[in-house]
Structure formats: structure tokens, C-alpha cells
Amino acid sequence: MNDLLDRFRNGDRRALARLITHVENETPTGRAAMRELYGDTGRARSIGITGPPGAGKSTLVDRLALQFRQEALKVAIVAVDPSSPFTGGAILADRVRMRKLADDPEVFIRSMATRGALGGLSRTTGSVLKVLDAFGFDVVLLETVGVGQGEVEVVREAETCIVLEVPGLGDSIQAIKAGVLEIGHIFVVNKADKPGADRVVEQILGMLGLNPTPPEWQPPVIETVATRGEGMKELADQIRAHWSHLDEKSLRRRHIGLRRVADLGEILKGRALGMISEKILAQSGYEELKQQVERGDVDPFEAADRLLPFDGSEDWRLP
Amino acid sequence: MNDLLDRFRNGDRRALARLITHVENETPTGRAAMRELYGDTGRARSIGITGPPGAGKSTLVDRLALQFRQEALKVAIVAVDPSSPFTGGAILADRVRMRKLADDPEVFIRSMATRGALGGLSRTTGSVLKVLDAFGFDVVLLETVGVGQGEVEVVREAETCIVLEVPGLGDSIQAIKAGVLEIGHIFVVNKADKPGADRVVEQILGMLGLNPTPPEWQPPVIETVATRGEGMKELADQIRAHWSHLDEKSLRRRHIGLRRVADLGEILKGRALGMISEKILAQSGYEELKQQVERGDVDPFEAADRLLPFDGSEDWRLP
After folding, report:
1. Which of B26, B82, B271 sits opposite A308 (nearest CB)?
2. Does A94 share its domain with A232?
3. Would residue B214 count as lying in a domain?
4. How far is CA A228 from CA A31, A72, A96, A232, A247, in A?
5. For the residues B171-197, what does the mean pLDDT come to?
6. Do residues A113 and A78 make contact, with C-beta atoms less than 8 angstroms apart?
7. Which of residues 28-67 of B touch A (CB under 8 A)?
8. Domain range holding A31?
9. Phi, psi of B236, deg, nearest 5
């Protein structure tokens, strides 16, 4: 691992890619590396982008990356695809990124497929963001399809959340997206040259207006046509405005502090699960008891009492 | 709790409703009741129904419930709505169920909103299914919007999974649903009187045909017009055919056995988290250490070493 970390710290992108794989798979090397790198994190700006399939997220993310490159910022893109819980394969095909980005040595692009539970994904996404942060990227763009709650959790790992909407998807889609509306710091109505764009802007403004306690940050709603690069400058300006807001109000320091405490909780939770399951597996009667439970001869609660007697609260009580 | 359980066992529907609330919120009463009722489970048939918003799931579920009622089966309906992670409110409004069902004393209808992580929801959904099973329902219909992976997990709690499709939702929706296709035992193309229905049937058959190892159960594809009750008899017949298949091949006994082992794992996991977090909170230095982590004075890994030294694997290693 030390060799890998040395190369990582020397800016070797292949070492970066390998380290991310370790972190994604939560290997011992990945966990040890997170520990080593933790002190180097807290500098990069993270931006989450979510929206329904077909909203043009990838194009917008590519254009936004180009915009930041023009300002000489180093940019990483992480695209999170929902995948089949059975095959483990990603549903959305890896589309071809803009050539200009793929050839740029200061741009790094990575796809992550969701494996198993989405709770686990938001944890590993958080770790991948930290690895990219430690590598020295100024901006990390985190792109995900906003179709379920798990995906919303993923985007919440980012400091700035952009929610994409688009005209013409119908009302039921809009209804589903209500939960996503609440996480947005900036709203983008993409494909704004299509009919109905103004109505989508109005709908979003209407929903934002329903908020009973107006937040200190009033989320702007921007129209873009990402395929032609229209509105990208304004979007980048609004992102910078949000960064200033986070810095001025010490919100960013607070966000990072809370993340650090949440990380402590996750580390302890992992250890708790590892320690206790190791202890249970080491018990001589475990395998037979498991078979008795499977056959229905012993009730799972009864078996749990024999393996791990405990009558306190079964909740994780740390942050 | 004993009073509540007595009333539950006497068939009191208000006691049933209250018990479900306890189980959903994972209260001590809910947990104790699950333990008491566990031995009474394993009889009800559970049917999961998923599909995109606007596919007519609720209407189909209502019609299917009526069909089973005509066969004198007691039916429970559980509708799982995705909700906002911020407000906790359900996004899809509780629609009015068919009057005929709402007035039927042998039919029980319950809505569940997703609170917090979806992993937690599939766990509580499993528990709610068991409560309804223990109450004596013959069939439990579990209805959910199939938009994300978490929702897929929910439907997998059921023995028989029905996947609804509908003409006219466009290709991007179809693409997202690829992951859902793999869990279906029966496919229904609802609104089959609309143009394009045949093409959807063909698409599903085509995707099913791609399966490299044909399963023992070949999922049928049925066309329905739920608003007019068309195709419901055939759907009920196919559900019964699936039940026979599960029974003949001992698949049902295997499914129940694996669920029991999974339940044992969940109980032990809950205890592990409860025990260890209790232990950590009881340490005198915990609060101050947490603040040091938040301020960035102590690294979360360093803090974890002080609170819970462990250098084994941080994975849960039980089923």
C-alpha cells in the first residue's frame, strides 16, 4: 500500500484510479489508505448534480467541467449509476464523454455503479470524494440519476446540490421529484429551448415559495441549453455565489465538522459489526443453530438470545 | 403490550393498526410483539407489485384484491410510498381506494411512507408483512413505486413479484426499469387498450429471452385494463400457478428458511449496534472527543482507536 500511496501523492493518476477501486470495494488497503489520506482532505469543492433520466445531466456536467477548466481549476467527475441489484451491472451505458475533457490531463472521470444497498453507496461515495480531494482536485462533480431516495442521499454528500429539471416529462415525474426539490441549492431547467420550460421554472419557484421558513440561501432557478453551452457561465457564477455563502456564514466549516463526526460514527459502526460478527462466528454452536433457524426448529429471537444476549435498545445511538 | 396482543389475537383491527405503527417505528413494544408473533407467521401469501408512476398500480391492486375476495380469501394491502427525506411526508397523495374494498371487513389497507434509509424500510416492510400474516390474512399485496433500488429491495420481501409496465412512457423509463425486470415472476402490461401495448409486451419478452440461463419458472406476460377489470382473472390464475410452482419445488419452504436466517442476522446486527454504541456513550471522554473531531483537532480514525480499538475486518460477516 505504501508504494501505491507514494505514487498517489506524486500525482500518478493510475495510482489514483486503483486507490478509488480499493475504496469502492472497501478492501483493507482502501480502508488503510482512507486513514492515511484523511488529513489531506477538506479543500476541494464538491458539487452534486441530480435529475431524472433524459434531463441532460451528463452534457451539463461536461459543460460545467469545461467552464471550470477555463478558470484553470482541476476537475474530477464522478458519475453514479443505479445498477441492477441482481446482476450488479450498471443500467445506464457509459456514454462517451466530450473529447475535450477526456484528453485533458487535469480532468479525471470515474463511473461508479451501485452495488448492494444504497446506504453503502453514499458511504463509499463520500470516501471517493475524499480521495479526489486529497489528490488535489479543486472541484469534484458528483452526478447521479435522481430517481430514488438512496440517490438523494448520495447527492447530499456534496456541499452544493444542483437539481436538474426539464420540460415535457409529465406530471407524475414532477411529483416524484418533490423530495429532490428540498435538497437543491441551485435549480437548473435544462433544454430551456423546448416548449414548457417557463412553466417548469414557475412550478419550481412555486414549490420553493411553499417553504414556510425561507432559508438564508434563496435557491436560484437557471435556464440552460447544455448542448449549446447556453447558461453555463451563469450557472458557474451561481455556484461561486453559493461557495461564498458557505464560507461567509461558516457553513462550510460546519458541514465539514459534521461530516467528520459522521465519519467517526461510520468507523465505529463498521468496527461494531466486525467485532460482534467475528465473536458470533467463533462460537462453536453457531452453524448448527443457524440451520435450526432455517428449518424452523428454533425461532430467530431465541437463537439471538443464545448467541448474543442483550436486552437494551437495538438502536445505534451515535451521530 | 399484552393487552394489545390479546386484542390483536382476538381479531381486533384497531389493535392490528396500532401494532403496525409500533413495528414501523421500531418501538420497544413493536420489537417485543414481533418476538411474540414470530411463531404465527409463514402462512400468508405475499405478492409484491411494482411499476412506474402512472402505470395504474393502485387500480390493479384494488381489482386484484376484489378478485381474491370473490374467492373468499382475506386480503391486506400495504402501499409503500417514497417520501421526502427532509419532511418525512409521503409524496404520492393517499388516493381513494375502491369503496367496495374500504367497506369490506375482511380487507385491510395500510399506507407506509419511507422514513430515513430505504434499507430500514425493507426491514420494517418485512416485519409488517409478518404482522399481517400472524393476524390471519391469506394474501398480502405489497404495492410500491418502482423508481429506485431501495424500492426493488422492498418488493423482494414478497414471494411473488409482479412488475407492471404500461405503453407510452418513453424509452428512458424503460431503461431504468431494466433492474426491476429481473425480479418479476409475472409481468403485466396494463392499459393494454392504449396504442403501443403490443410493443411493450414484445420488449419484455425480448428482455426475458436475453436471460442466458432460462429459469425453471418462465415469467408470463399478461395484458390488462385494470380500470375495466380486464385480465384480472388471468392474472389471479397466473399468481396461483406461481404459488403451485413455489410449493412443488419446495421453493417456498426455502424462501421462508432463508428469511428466517436473514431475520436472525438483522436481530443480531441490531443488538451489535445497540450494545456497542451504549458502551461507547458510557465512556467518560466520548463527548469531548467528539467535539475535538468536529473541530478537526483529532482525526476520526484516531478517535475511533481510542473509543473502540479493533484491527479486524469491519464487515458484518453473518448472513
Report:
1. B271
2. yes
3. yes
4. 42, 21, 17, 9, 32
5. 76
6. no
7. 28, 31, 34-35, 38-39, 42, 52-54
8. 1-40
9. -60, -40
